[in-house]
Amino acid sequence: MKKFVLAIHGGAGTILKKNMTPEKEEAYHEALREALEAGEDILNKKGTAIEAVAVAVSAMEDSPLFNAGKGSVYSNSGKNEMEASIMEGAKLRAGAIAGVRNIKNPIQLAKSILFDDDFVYLIGKGAEEYGDNRKLEKAADEYFQTRFREEQWLAAKGEGKVLLDHDADKKFGTVGAVALDIDGNLAAATSTGGLTNKKYGRIGDSSVIGSGTYANNNTCAISCTGYGEFFLRAIVAYDVSCLMEYKGLSLKDACEQVVMKKLVAMKGEGGLIALDAAGNYDFSFNSEGMYRGVVGSDLALKTYIYK
Questions:
Q1: According to the annotation, is 219 in a ligand binding site?
Q2: What was the pLDDT predicted at 79?
Q3: 227: which DSSP letter?
Q4: What is the spatial distance between Cα 138 and Cα 130, in angstroms, rounded to a whole number?
Q5: pTM of this prediction?
Q6: Comparing 16 with 152, which gets the higher pLDDT?
Q7: Ramachandran bin of 164, using left for φ above 0, alpha for ψ from -120 to 50, beta for the remaining angles
């Protein structure tokens, strides 16, 4: 049987062991394991890479630990506004959404758009109406309103600040997944609640194909996590693919060039998960840590937090 691989992330940033209780650390590991197991189950049954990344990201969206889906941060108006994107490497089809509310799993809405040749990127009320027409599961405001996120928002609003994710532990709370299925197809998916106290309908790189998410069977699948404005300016996900396609760089060298050199020079913090068509994977980040994990047909399931 041809091999499959699945890698995920739950955000990068200033994630230090000294600031983490053993209970919280184990909770993150368990949430990452659950997401990996959900995606692995799909791939084990000869499912597609698209289905695997969507399922893995959905699992993280269902956890209040991550800034996506249920755990999404509050905007300046006290609402949970989410964005997500997904792409498959065979035909370069993609689906993306931004500025949506009350969608239980934003990545599933993005996946629905991927299979619709009429659209790639939908926003706001229109995207929500599209989801309603396809009977996608919704959730009331209360589902997303966790006390932890509310306290972050009130603190940020009180100081008049826009925050990356939470308190002293600066964290870019995006979630994402990349997969290679047994048919040799790649896929990538990314989802986030954005920045705490964000204004003016701000969106980041997570829903932008080429910046936060990219997949191409000829090169790689990428899902990013970081300060979105820098990842948008640097077109990070596509840049890794370009270095592989046009300069012949390996996956690892391309990631190194973009994350550790280009982004660092721009003072852009964060990272990405990457996977190529041969099943090679890379976790590349210039921050102190990144919630991440990997599993495959010949890879034991492993999860990591720190550098």
A1: no
A2: 84
A3: -
A4: 12
A5: 0.94
A6: 16
A7: alpha
Token digits of residue 247: 């300069």
How many CB atoms are closer than 10 A to CB 29? 16
Rg (the chain; Cα; Å): 17
203 is known to lie in a ligand binding site: yes
Question: Is domain 5-290 annotated with CATH 3.60.20.30?
Answer: yes
Residues belonging to the active site: 174
* Dihedral sign, Cα of residue 11, residue 193, residue 196, residue 155: negative
292 is in an annotated binding site: no
pLDDT tier at 171, thresholds 50, 70, 90: low
pLDDT band at 118 (very low <50, low <70, confident <90, very high): very high
Token readout for 260 is: 């550790």
Which tokens in the block code for residue 254? 């391309």
- Phi, psi of 8, rounded to the nearest 5 degrees: -135, 160
Kindly list the domain boundaries of the chain, sorted by start residue: 5-290
Residue 62: band (very low, low, confident or very high) from pLDDT cuts 50, 70, 90:
very high
Q: Is 227 annotated as ligand-binding? A: yes
| 162 — pLDDT class (breaks 50, 70, 90) | low
Cα gap 109→100, rounded to integer Å: 10
